[in-house]
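Morning F.,

Quick status update on the modeling queue. The single chain you submitted on Monday has been processed. Sequence for confirmation:
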Amino acid sequence: MRVAGLGVILTGALSALVWAIWGGRAALAGALFGLLAATIHVMAVAALRRVWNAPFRNLVRGWAMGMGLRLGGAVVWMVAVLVREDFFPPLPTAICFLGVLIPLLFTEMHFLK
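Structure tokens below.
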């Protein structure tokens, strides 16, 4: 699956950047959220792919499901940072989560072919 591979590559690159700046613990937390973002995106593309040729109403539902998954990931990030800020430093984890999720979001149409 190409979208998962791109997510893993982005996660690795951003985790290495976070490791160079903040150290190993922040890189581990960032990698977890990068992989979460990649998983969310794979699920969102799968939901949209199922309804791609369906009527518009169903297409919008599939799109909304993907956006809801992404919003749910942001909520998971917020809860993790608020509950365990010592393990999930806000900036490094946000960089990895959004640094994976946003580029994948812009490539979503490419993966629907």
